[in-house]
Design a protein that fits this description.
By secondary structure, the protein is α/β, with parallel strands linked by helices. The protein has 2 domains: about 90 residues, Ribonuclease Z/Hydroxyacylglutathione hydrolase-like (Metallo-beta-lactamase, Chain A, 4-Layer Sandwich); about 150 residues, Metallo-beta-lactamase, Chain A (4-Layer Sandwich). The protein is about 35% helix and about 25% strand. A hairpin with a 4-residue loop joins strand 7 and strand 8.
């Protein structure tokens, strides 16, 4: 049985840890210390590391994790070929498949540029580890790519199974919902999500994972064709890319 737990790091990061009570795989370990503490607490052996992109809050813990286990076991690190990393890694491109036999999981690689030019995600029929491309009720900032690239990347996620669990790497959901409500104040699904997230956060519980179905109902960046959003965004043009671009600009200053 697979368990997936968030390890909080920094102010609002989540390092996702997948384990079966014996082996563990971590996604985007920006800080090694809380990961090592969790591995020791749960008596887990680290089997692999998955990286979505090169930002320091996603990779700075990698080298310490590679040396924390005394057993002479080589821990594979998977990372996008499109970006540069100082540590040894297995380079991945669009369409690659990786198999993690220790936790009985396989993932397909999706190249999703926009937040960074080389950003990738890991997806299978149940789970999506999307780094900083898609957030709860939001999406990543555009640091290296273009609005067109990020818009296209998000559109590639929309056809995934609605039940796919979305594991993004920042606790931005509450603020994203507040922004989304300025665009769709009468969206019943969004109002309900706000209440549920408030309850979770009041208990210091994560608002994640989400699902693709929930994001399609509540995430304005996946809903750029909705009349209310088009109206409230006040974009110069009503095509979806123009609306998306305006939404991203509005959210940057929200």
């Amino acid at each position: 049985m697979l368990n997936i737990i968030p390890i909080p790091a920094f102010d609002d990061n989540y390092i996702w840890l997948l384990h079966n009570k014996r082996y563990a795989v971590v996604v985007d370990p920006g800080d090694a210390h809380p990961v090592i503490a969790t591995l020791k607490k749960l008596n887990l052996a680290l089997a692999a590391i998955l990286i979505t992109h090169h930002h320091s809050d996603h990779i700075d813990g990698v080298e310490a994790l590679l040396t924390h286990q005394t057993a002479p076991v080589s821990i594979p690190v998977y990372a996008p070929q499109y970006e540069q990393f100082a540590f040894e890694h297995i380079k991945l491109v669009e369409g690659d498949e990786i198999t993690l036999p220790e936790i009985a999981q396989s993932f397909r690689v999706m190249w999703l540029p926009g937040h960074t030019l080389g950003h990738i995600a890991y997806v299978n029929d149940e789970y999506l580890f999307c780094g900083d491309v898609l957030f709860g009720a939001g999406c990543g900032r555009i640091f290296e790519g273009t609005p067109n690239q990020l818009f296209a990347s998000l559109n590639r996620l929309k056809p995934l199974k609605g039940s796919t669990k979305v594991f993004c790497t920042h606790e931005y959901t509450a603020k994203n919902i507040a922004f989304a409500l300025t665009l769709e104040p009468n969206n019943a699904n969004l109002i309900d999500r706000k209440q549920r997230v408030q309850t979770l956060r009041a208990q210091q519980l994560p608002s994640l994972p989400s699902t693709i179905e929930l994001e399609l109902k509540t995430n304005p960046f996946l809903r750029c064709n909705q009349a209310t959003i088009i109206k409230n965004a006040q974009a110069e043009n009503q095509d979806e890319l123009s609306v998306f671009t305006k939404l991203r600009t509005l959210r940057n200053h929200y």
